[in-house]
Design goal:
Number of helices: 4
Largest sheet: 6 strands, mixed
Structural class: alpha+beta
Number of domains: 1
Order of helices and strands: HEEEEEHEHH
Radius of gyration: 17 Å
CATH class: Alpha Beta
Distance between the termini: 51 Å
Number of strands: 6
Helix content: 25-40%
CATH topology: Ribosomal Protein S5, domain 2
Length: about 160
């Protein structure tokens, strides 16, 4: 599948869930609560390369796919916080362990979101600048969607300004 076909497919992709009136939330007070599925797809042109992103938000985890120029799946990583010290553990579910492109992104996304992350990534392993740019764009989008948890300093300044 070419980049143009993928871009067209992304613009046509729509997932619907139960209808909700404006301002209405689920019982937990969170719009991304149980049973709600939110899918976001976008494309960015970075460093003469087209990157395709898909973010699927489940109730307690996020699935992310990052495709570089093609619709290939790439390596699949799962990252979660572990008890008792809340460290992040990452494992390669599909793909070799010698290519860790994406495992660092998955680890940092868990820290930024506080949610379990499943990341599929086919960024070339010899492109650390492209990987960093892709992660930057992904985090910007996650912040825009409200999927990241607030930083302690940001929460304090917003309370102090009120």
């Amino acid at each position: 599948m070419s980049s143009e076909e993928l871009r067209t497919s992304f613009s046509d992709f729509v997932v619907s869930s139960s209808t909700r009136k404006k301002g209405q939330t689920n019982s937990s007070g969170d719009s991304s609560s149980e049973g709600d599925l939110q899918v976001t797809c976008f494309t960015e042109d970075l460093h003469d390369v087209t990157l395709h992103f898909q973010i699927v938000r489940f109730s307690k985890q996020i699935y992310v796919w990052v495709g570089c120029n093609t619709a290939k799946f790439g390596h699949l990583y799962a990252a979660v916080t572990t008890r008792p010290d809340n460290r992040v553990s990452v494992t390669s579910v599909l793909g070799g362990t010698s290519d860790n492109t994406g495992s660092g992104i998955a680890r940092r996304l868990v820290l930024k979101t506080g949610l379990n992350i499943v990341l599929a990534c086919n960024i070339p392993k010899d492109s650390p600048m492209l990987e960093a740019a892709a992660e930057r764009k992904l985090v910007e989008k996650l912040k825009g969607l409200g999927y990241t948890r607030p930083i302690a300093g940001e929460a304090n300044t917003s309370i102090a300004q009120k």
